[in-house]
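STRUCTURE:
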């Protein structure tokens, strides 16, 4: 096993790809602990320490975000908007003949479908970010915790939170695509795997 690892690091191209992939994963994991603007990180940690989560769906989504959802971090949406967008685009191939034609066109058609997936990912990220901010503001995210997660309820802070969370979704999507192009393996799958094992 150690000889195989040594061979990987002796091959310059493979070593570069592996180190690039590890750097993407490190940045992704670091983003989990950077709180979104307007979030009282100390209160979030106290609510988490007290085990005041509502469980169920939140815990499931939190698993795929690598713990970022309940941390209310900049990467709180995780990879879920991209996964959802990919599934929707695949389902639309059955409903919309043009999508099926694009799929059969080869690389040029796939590039257009990928672009549609990106746009839909950002739209879903915006929708989910708005939902998460509403949950954090209302106290539904941590139902038995009385500490305010978002102390400043002004419109500017709320909009900044939504924009930041949506930008985090876009950044995760971009990092996943970069890891696929320049790294080792499928970038999105690696980020999902990283989130699950980290949780």
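SEQUENCE:
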């Amino acid at each position: 096993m150690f000889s195989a690892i040594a061979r990987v690091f002796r091959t310059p191209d493979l070593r570069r790809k592996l180190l690039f992939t590890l750097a993407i994963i490190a940045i992704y994991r670091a983003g989990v602990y950077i709180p979104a603007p307007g979030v009282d990180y100390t209160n979030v940690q106290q609510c988490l320490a007290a085990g005041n989560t509502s469980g169920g769906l939140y815990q499931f989504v939190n698993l795929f975000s690598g713990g970022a959802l309940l941390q209310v971090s900049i990467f709180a949406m995780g990879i879920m908007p991209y996964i959802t967008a990919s599934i929707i685009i695949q389902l639309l191939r059955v409903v919309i003949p043009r999508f099926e034609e694009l799929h059969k066109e080869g690389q040029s058609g796939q590039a257009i479908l990928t672009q549609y997936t990106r746009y839909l990912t950002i739209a879903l990220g915006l929708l989910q970010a708005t939902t998460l901010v509403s949950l954090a503001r209302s106290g539904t995210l941590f139902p038995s915790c009385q500490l305010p997660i978002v102390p400043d309820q002004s419109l500017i802070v709320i909009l900044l939170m939504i924009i930041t969370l949506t930008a985090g979704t876009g950044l995760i999507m971009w990092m996943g695509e970069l890891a696929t192009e320049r790294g080792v393996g499928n970038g999105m799958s690696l980020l999902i795997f990283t989130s699950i094992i980290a949780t």
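REMARK: The mean pLDDT is 85.
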